[in-house]
Design a protein that fits this description.
By secondary structure, this protein is of the alpha+beta class. 32% of the residues lie in helices and 20% in strands. It has seven helices and ten strands. α5 links the parallel β6 (125-129) and β7. The chain is globular.
């Protein structure tokens, strides 16, 4: 990663690693987060590389079972968002660290109902909470980030209850890792992974020696 690219913070006023973690402690028993931040190929790719993350699954959240398929969600007329379900070991990675990376690396939380050129409600920024304690925890963190002024615009991430998470079709799972040369992956997912390695390389899995075939040293 070039120094110029490393300094391109997008909506951030500060470097990604200067975005603070939540000041509050995560609720007891929090071992799963469901997050939406644009195309799930790209957000999944970021979190799959993290030490302490047990699994990341792409899917749909916010809508009903009958519309939980890629063809319908892509129309943009359902309540679903493309989302990921992250299951993690809180003894190895804190929920707060995952949220920090969600806001600082995985997507732009100041863009409403879109991410970059992907437009539509299915690409909204959202955290789907399991219980009120989790909702309040994330809400406090968003307020903390807005007060800190680390973004050039207000955070528009919505907090929505999670009645159900619907796994996406099999061909969407681990899509970026299986299709590293795919043009969209190269254009959108790879820069996120490079940013992750540059600013948060110590948070990635020790055995994850490469990022899409690139040696980690090349991204620092």
């Amino acid at each position: 990663m070039s120094n110029q690219a490393a300094g391109a913070y997008g909506a951030l006023r500060v470097a990604p690693d200067a975005v603070p973690m939540p000041a509050q402690t995560a609720p007891a028993g929090c071992t799963e987060l469901v997050l939406a931040g644009g195309c799930f190929w790209c957000t999944e790719a970021v979190f799959a590389t993290l030490d302490g993350v047990r699994s990341v699954e792409s899917g749909y959240a916010g809508g009903s079972a009958d519309t939980a398929n890629y063809e319908r969600v892509c129309r943009g007329d359902t309540e679903h968002a493309e989302a990921i379900r992250i299951r993690f070991d809180p003894g190895r990675v804190e929920a707060g660290k995952l949220l920090q990376l969600f806001f600082a690396v995985a997507h732009d939380p100041t863009q409403k109902d879109r991410q970059g050129h992907d437009r539509g409600r299915q690409y909204r920024s959202a955290v789907f909470w399991h219980d009120v304690a989790e909702r309040d925890y994330v809400a406090a963190y968003i307020e903390q980030l807005n007060r800190a002024g680390v973004f050039n615009a207000p955070i528009v991430t919505t907090l929505e209850p999670l009645p159900m998470f619907y796994p996406a079709e099999a061909y969407h799972q681990s899509f970026a890792a299986r299709n590293p040369a795919q043009p969209y992956v190269q254009a959108v997912a790879l820069p996120k992974l490079e940013k992750l390695q540059h600013y948060f390389g110590d948070a990635t899995k020790p055995d994850d020696a490469t990022v899409f075939g690139k040696d980690k040293k090349e991204t620092r």
